[in-house]
Write a structure and sequence with these properties.
This protein has a single domain (35-155), classed as Fe-S cluster assembly (FSCA) (GMP Synthetase, Chain A, domain 3). Helix 3 (92-106) crosses helix 6. Helix content is 33%, strand content 10%. It is α+β, with helices and mostly antiparallel strands.
């Protein structure tokens, strides 16, 4: 995807085993199962890194513990914190955009999503966070065909999933 690698030799971790979820409809046809931390993580775990053939889970960029769910309000809010593999990662904004787009595509629009770089893990953390959570900047990024192609490539399903 990218010609020069920022982190040429990343540490690759083993993927966690997928847990089987029983949809609430299988238990009770009238039940509505709330979206939880595991479901959000399952949506994000197979996103491919823009530089490497590994998933964000395999690179420990995203983990189940990095997803926070707050459903105490009248709407549900999710905070997803990700950790770039190196603190000067130029792909951090692309990774965050991939996370946001994936959730935009799979969740109803009523959900609030906050995407952030884990505190202290990126040299320009505040700037990256500002870009990823500004609706106008995200909309402008998604009007750029080159960025959309990169995001779509990262979100494309792999046959290993």
């Amino acid at each position: 995807m990218v010609s020069e690698l920022i982190n040429a030799n990343p540490i690759v971790y083993e993927k966690k085993e997928r847990r089987v979820r029983i949809p609430a409809a299988d238990v009770n046809e009238y039940a509505v199962e709330p979206i939880d931390q595991l479901e959000i993580f399952d949506h994000l775990r197979d996103i491919k890194d823009p530089e490497h053939p590994y998933s964000l889970e395999e690179l420990k960029v995203i983990s189940e513990d990095a997803v926070e769910v707050d459903d105490k309000r009248s709407y549900v809010s999710f905070r997803v914190t990700f950790t770039p593999t190196v603190e000067h990662c130029s792909m951090a904004t692309i990774i965050g955009l991939c996370l946001r787009v994936k959730l935009m595509r799979c969740l109803p629009s009523r959900y609030k999503v906050d995407i952030r770089v884990a505190p202290g893990t990126h040299a320009t953390e505040a700037a990256v966070n500002k870009q990823l959570n500004d609706k106008e900047r995200v909309a402008a990024a998604l009007e750029n065909p080159n960025l959309v192609d990169i995001v779509d490539e990262c979100l494309a399903p792999s046959y290993e999933s």
